[in-house]
Amino acid sequence: MEAGQIAPPAHELQFNAHLRGREFHFTTTWGLFHPKGIDAGTALLLDRLVVNDDATCLDLGCGWGPIGLTLAHLAPGGQVHMVDKDFVAVDYAQRNAAANGCANARAYLSNGFSHVPATQSFDLVVSNIPAKVGGELLQYWITETHRRLHPGGAIWVVTVAGLKDYMKRVLRETFGNHRKVKQSGTHVVTMAIRS
Predict the structure, then answer these.
(1) What is the CA radius of gyration of the chain?
(2) Backbone angles phi, psi at 120, to 5 degrees
(3) What is the pLDDT of residues 28-73, one digit of tens each?
(4) Nearest Cα to 122, choosing from 57, 29, 175?
């Protein structure tokens, strides 16, 4: 294998995706979430997401980077942190950021907020929450997101439709508000704002 390469070329997948007015080229590999293209939940989220052009953003559980790099495109005057607990995902997210000229985005290893600098706060936290994340971990992510957001900052998430009532409850308990942005047959996009 060449330096900086963690999967043999035969195991890599490459494709283009048109996201929010920009053509991206992505390289992924087997074993990462949805390696062959943009999944339905991410597409639903990205179609509706509202981002200020100077926002400091966090893509929580970035995978190979489609959400974070779209954030980098939509917030050219801001900065995007992309974190994942999977080192393979982080490697591909960083490679995809470089390949797409997203100098305002960087990917690094972090289990949730564990390695996000303690003093770092955000205008926007975005996540495609895994269906089997577990209630305790999800509650921690939501609580820590609230703590890390600037006043007026927002959390946007997409979940499988089966989690919509849970998300509504936990966001209302933590943020005091909740808005269902869009629902498809399989996924729901919700958001909340820190007062």
Answers:
(1) 16
(2) -80, 125
(3) 999 999 999 999 999 999 999 999 999 999 999 999 999 999 999 9
(4) 57
d(CA 189, CA 144): 20
Query: How many other CB atoms are found less than 10 A from the CB of residue 79?
Result: 18
87 and 20 Cβ atoms separated by less than 8 Å: no
pLDDT at residue 1 tops 50? no
The separation between CA 53 and the C-alpha centre of its own chain, rounded to angstroms, equals: 17
Q: List 149's β-bridge partners, or say none.
A: 122
Q: What is the pTM of this model?
A: 0.93
**How do residues 84-138 score in pLDDT, each as one tens digit?**
999 999 999 999 999 999 999 999 999 999 999 999 999 999 999 988 877 888 8
Q: How many CA atoms are closer than 13 Å to the CA of 32, on its beta-carbon side?
A: 30
CA distances from 23 to 27, 76, 78, 145 (A): 14, 15, 20, 30
HEC string for the chain: CCCCCCCCHHHEEEEEEEECCEEEEEEEECCCCCCCCCCHHHHHHHHHCCCCCCCEEEEECCCCCHHHHHHHHHCCCCEEEEEECCHHHHHHHHHHHHHCCCCCEEEEECCCCCCCCCCCCEEEEEEECCCCCCHHHHHHHHHHHHHHEEEEEEEEEEEEHHHHHHHHHHHHHHHCCCEEEEECCCEEEEEEECC
Query: How much is the mean pLDDT over the chain?
Result: 94
